[in-house]
Amino acid sequence: MAIYVFFECTRSTCRLRFPLDTSSYRGLFCPLCGGVLRAIPASAEADSPSPAPAPPGRRIIGILDNIRSAFNVGGIFRTADGAGVEHLFLCGITPTPSQQPSLVKTALGAEKAVPWSTHPNALTVLEKMRDEGFGILALERTVGSVPIQEFSLGAMEDRPLGLIVGHERAGVDPGLLEYCDGLIALPMVGRKASLNAAVAFGVAAYWLAFIQAPGV
Questions:
Q1: Sheet arrangement for strand 17-21
Q2: CA-based, 20 to 30 A from 22: which of 38, 104, 154, 191?
Q3: CATH number of 60-211
Q4: pLDDT in tens, 160-215
Q5: In b/e form, how buried is each residue of 136-154, taking b as 16+ CB within 10 angstroms?
Q6: Which residues are CB-neighbours of 63 under 8 A, at least 6 positions away?
Q7: For 40-75, how does the pLDDT look when each residue is reduced to its tens digit (9 = 90+)?
Q8: Domain ranges of the chain
């Protein structure tokens, strides 16, 4: 089991400060300058876990359609676990935990905590979700998209929700957009037009779970 302790280099010209796994590392010298390291005393607060937040006030399902990167999918698994996402549908060419070791490495065990299933065609997933009363949202910058900070769930407020994120370059399949009750986009004030797929999913999932949650 990893046991991390923060160390600081004692050389005044360096003072590199970083964590070390003391269960496997026995070194006493700075990897940057060779100076002697000193352990930083742990704070009492660090030993006390913070209270767990209340779970999301609604059911949230993730639909990952044709995501190319196993690292993105692994990151989404970790976000889904943290935000209380109930299930991830891995559709099209989206890699799965059983196929990609790099996905499992990025997910850090979240792939075992979040239920998932594979589907060659996301349209069949959305058809079933519509029949079950889900409201469906897509993360997509296109005509009709509403900035997430301005979007209101309206009639979907008390419904379970499905959140779609699509191919990193091609975006969400136009056929899927026809099933959506809303299109949301993240504001971008820099030079880039969009965020990494895993980061964007994380922002939207937490927004649905803890900001747009019923009663908030």
A1: 17-21, 4-9, 37-39
A2: 104
A3: 3.40.1280.10
A4: 999 999 998 898 999 999 999 999 998 888 776 667 899 999 999 999 988 776 55
A5: bbbbbbeeebeebeebebe
A6: 88, 89, 91, 122, 125, 126, 162, 163, 164, 165, 176
A7: 887 655 455 555 555 567 889 999 999 999 999 999
A8: 4-46, 60-211
